[in-house]
């Protein structure tokens, strides 16, 4: 029961992060599920099944607040669904011996990317509420993002949101809202891929249920907070947490001794604290650079 309560709380916090940053639900939740002993395929399957529900609530919330560009949702989400189904099939057919280090490596890399991205290069400020990006850019992005998401148990946001924000052509709130909404298609396709390959016998629906409950509770709040949270600080903090969680798994796979593991984790934790401190100071010095997720503007 304590484990389920913890997972439910993580689902709630992960959705708050995801709804505010456009990333973080899958990588945060999958990292925890790997930590408590689920296999990579089952962890990813559980997270994506839960995300089908949370994405609906999150998408509706963002839509009501005017954060969604439906053209972007379809152009990104449909190829994302194709990539996610392929990624789920690929992960389901890997042996656990290969899947665990692969998934932990992907999650650690994604966590490091989030950490560095928000510590040193916060999202650019843009005001366009409809994306100018074409199929040539969005289709490959969706395919790669969907495949990484299913294979790594998360990654749709880190791949899609950061790419769109880095381009600096679409308002951050529109990017976050549209990526969150398109993730419904990705999660649904990934879930279908896992169910087709694994069936339902190994899936713990109690875990899916508490992840879903936590996410559904947090989704409306997260959509409201998207233009109010200090994303630079939040992204840096979440990225470091993901790195440390998965680094433990990688060190164990590599056969590192207890002393070595503890030393590496302490060094990484100290670096993480330093980066969070840097992000806080940078946010206080130039708050307009951080989250100036643009003033309210009318849809065009």
Automatic annotation (TrEMBL):
Q: How does it sit in the membrane?
A: Multi-pass membrane protein
Output the superkingdom of the source species. Bacteria
Where does it reside? Cell membrane; Membrane
Keywords attached to this Swiss-Prot or TrEMBL record, sorted alphabetically, are: Cell membrane, Membrane, Transmembrane, Transmembrane helix
Q: Where are the transmembrane segments?
A: 32-51, 72-92, 98-116, 137-156, 203-226, 233-256, 262-280
GO CC annotation, single: plasma membrane
The family classification in the record reads:
Belongs to the 4-toluene sulfonate uptake permease (TSUP) (TC 2.A.102) family.
According to UniProt, the name of this protein is Probable membrane transporter protein
> Which organism does this sequence originate in?
Tessaracoccus antarcticus
Primary residence: membrane
């Amino acid at each position: 029961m304590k484990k389920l309560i913890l997972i439910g709380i993580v689902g709630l916090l992960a959705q708050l992060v995801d709804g505010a940053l456009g990333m973080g639900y899958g990588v945060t939740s999958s990292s925890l599920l790997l930590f408590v002993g689920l296999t990579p395929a089952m962890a990813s399957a559980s997270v994506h099944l839960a995300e089908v529900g949370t994405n609906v609530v999150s998408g509706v919330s963002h839509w009501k607040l005017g954060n969604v560009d439906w053209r972007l949702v379809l152009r990104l989400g449909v190829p994302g669904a194709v990539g996610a189904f392929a990624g789920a099939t690929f992960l389901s057919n890997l042996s656990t011996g290969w899947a665990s280090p692969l998934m932990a490596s992907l999650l650690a890399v994604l966590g490091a990317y989030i950490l560095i991205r928000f510590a040193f290069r916060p999202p650019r400020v843009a005001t366009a509420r409809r994306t100018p990006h074409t199929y040539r850019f969005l289709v490959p992005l969706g395919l790669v993002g969907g495949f990484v998401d299913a294979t790594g148990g998360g990654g749709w946001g880190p791949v899609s949101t950061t790419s769109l924000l880095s381009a600096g052509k679409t308002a951050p709130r529109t990017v976050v809202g549209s990526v969150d909404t398109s993730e419904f298609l990705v999660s649904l396709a990934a879930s279908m891929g896992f169910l087709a390959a694994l069936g339902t016998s190994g899936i713990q629906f109690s875990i899916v249920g508490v992840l879903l409950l936590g996410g559904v509770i947090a989704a409306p709040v997260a959509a409201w907070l998207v233009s109010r949270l200090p994303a630079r600080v939040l992204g840096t903090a979440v990225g470091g947490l993901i790195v440390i969680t998965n680094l433990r798994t990688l060190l164990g796979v590599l056969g590192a001794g207890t002393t070595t593991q503890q030393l590496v984790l302490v060094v990484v934790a100290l670096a993480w604290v330093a980066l969070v401190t840097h992000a806080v100071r940078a946010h206080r010095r130039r708050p307009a650079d951080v989250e100036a997720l643009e003033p309210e503007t009318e849809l065009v």
